[in-house]
Structures are given as C-alpha cells and as structure tokens.
Amino acid sequence: MRRISAGTFAALLAGAVVLGLALGLFTGAAGLGPRRVVAALLGGADPLAHAVVWQLRLPRLVLGFLVGGVLAVSGASLQALVRNPLADPYLLGLSGGASLGAVLAIQAGADGVWAVPAAAFAGALLAVSAVYRLARVAGGVLDSRILLLGGVVVGAFAGALTSGILSVSEVTGTRTAMLWLLGGLGGVGWTGVAVLAVYAAPALAVLAGQARALDLLALGEEPAQHLGADVTAVKRRVYLAASLLVAAAVAAAGIIGFVGLAVPHLVRMLRGQAHRGLLPSAFVLGGAFLVLADAGARTVAAPLELPVGVVTALVGVPLFAVLLRRMVARREA
Q1: Under DSSP, is residue 319 helix (H, G, I), strand (E, B) or coil?
Q2: In which region does residue 187 sit, left (phi positive, over 0), alpha (psi from -120 to 50) or beta (all else)?
Q3: For residues 212 and 82, is the Cβ–Cβ distance under 8 A?
Q4: Rounded distance, CA 106 to CA 120, Å?
Q5: Closest to 279 (Cα-Cα) out of 244, 311, 242, 250
Q6: Contacts of 113 (CB under 8 A, 6+ apart)
Q7: Are 285 and 67 in contact (CB under 8 A)?
C-alpha cells in the first residue's frame, strides 16, 4: 500500500469521523427520523427524542470514540516498545488482567462507576507484573518473544480464573459479567464517559510525551540508549500508561479486540512510523472505527443488538490479514 499525502490522510480521517458521527446519531432501535434527531440536538424536539439523543446515543457515541482511540494508542505504543507488530493489549495479557479485576469487582457488588475501573486497573497492573516476572525468569526483560508468550500465558490464566468465578456466581451477576465481557457501549451514560476520560487523559499525555523515545526504541534498545533515551524509564512509563488505558477501556466497554492491533498498522502503512503523528492519528482512526462498528452492531441484526466486540473481530481479522499480506509483499519486494 503506497503512502498518501498528509492532506489526503486528514481528509480520510475527517470523513471516517463524520460518517461515524452520522451513523451513531441517526441509527438505533428508537426509530427516530433525521429531523427529530437534529431537532433534539438543537434542543427543540419532543421529550422522548431529546432523551434518546442526549442520554443514550450521544454518550454512547463519545464513549465509543474514546474507547477505540485509547485502544489504538495503547496498541501502537506497545508495538513500538517490544518491536513486534503482533503486540496488542489482548495478546500481552493486559485485557485479561483488567477483565479479571473488573469481574471480581462486579461479583463483589462494588459495581460503581469508580470501583470497576479501579479494580480493572489493579488487574492490569498485576498482569503486567506477571509478564515482567516471566520475562526476567527467562533472562530477557523485553525480549519480544518472551513478552508475547508471557502475555498469552497470563491472559489464559486470567481467563481461566474469570471463567471459574463466573461458573460459581449467581445467575444475575454472571449474566451481567458475561454481557460486559463480550464488549458493549450501551448503558454507561455521561458519568461513565467522564470516568473514562479522567483515567485516560493522564496516560494519553504520558504516551504523547514519549513519542520521540518510542521512535528511538523502535530502532532497538542499544541504539536508543546511545541516542539519549533512558530506556528503563521509558519502558516503565509506557507500560504503566498502556495499562491504565487498557484498564479504563475494558472497565467501560468490556473486551474489544483487534482495534489496538489493526488500526496502528493501517496508520503506519498510510502515513509512516513517526509516533508524533502516529499516536494522534491512531486515536482518531481507532475512535471512528469503533463508532462505525457499534453502529453496525446496532443495525445488522435489528431489533437485536450484537456485542460490539464481535463486530470488531469480524471486521478486524480480515483487515489485519490483508494488512499482513501487504506488509509481507512489501518486504519481499
């Protein structure tokens, strides 16, 4: 895939965002026409339309954009950190640890908007610590192969614990947790959006500040050290920030895969490797992608609603396969 100009890329991003906004606002089970939606946005519609637009569709749209954005930024950062294109929050065990913490909080009855993200963050930190420990035992703290294998092992272990907890839990709690684990953006509201923004904003700022260091780390640890990067400090900051992003996203929307894997690759192929532009572009494209996926989840089987995690997997797997094939062909050429 040939790289495109900055103007063309910006236009594509803007088009994706506008399309996602339109579909997110104008589609849904309520069956509101475009006129009623526009009137609700302007404050002049009937009470039902106003409630649907402002209390259901808009917070869902903003939440989807934020979750997709933070997952894409987290994936891009982790891929540069371990110098492996397969690095992903899900593959490195972060999502598994975060989901285990969140499920424990739900089953314990601490299901408030602040408690679940805090528990998910703690679970993500435990998963990161376990992966680090496995890497140290194997003799390579940031050997990409060890990290990926360790992430798979930790994720599988966390998944087994989560399944065990759900199998002995009450039916109501199990159903709530299972629906949450499948990934979804409904029922959060503006409070949940605010909580996600509070958790994600510091981590996004940290990763944005590490853009140059990530460029250097992509070259290798020794070259990065010679060029002035404090490799140990950068690794610690990036892992902690990525953990916070994933924990916040999982707590808000459940397990949503392939956004953090496929979106950064697409941005790299279109615009290059420099993280100063890659991270914000991945955030915007990841957000637009998840909003579009959620619109599809609400409409493809209407009046039923598919979990958005299912839609991202159905779209993300073929997309990543195409991107991987193009990457291989490009290297061989």
Answers
A1: helix
A2: left
A3: no
A4: 10
A5: 242
A6: 191, 192, 195
A7: no
Q: Which of 315, 271, 246 is nearest to 95 (CA)?
A: 246
Type and span of the H or E element at 150: helix 144-167
Q: What is the pLDDT of residue 59?
A: 93
Using a cut of 0.85, tell me whether the model's pTM lies above it: yes
Q: What is the pLDDT of residue 2?
A: 64
Contacts of 198 (CB under 8 A, 6+ apart): none
Correct CATH for 60-332 of 1.10.287.990, 3.40.50.720, 1.10.3470.10, 2.20.28.10: 1.10.3470.10
Q: Which amino acid is at 328?
A: V
Burial of 12 (0-12, 13-18, 19+ CB in 10 A): middle
**C-alpha span between 281 and 17 (Å, rounded):** 12
Cα distance between residue 226 and residue 145, in whole Å: 24
Residue pLDDT, tens place only, 212-225: 999 988 887 788 88
For the ranges 166-180, 222-236, 318-332, the one whose mean pLDDT is highest: 222-236
Query: Which residue shows structure tokens 């993500």?
Result: 124
Domain residue limits, the chain: 60-332
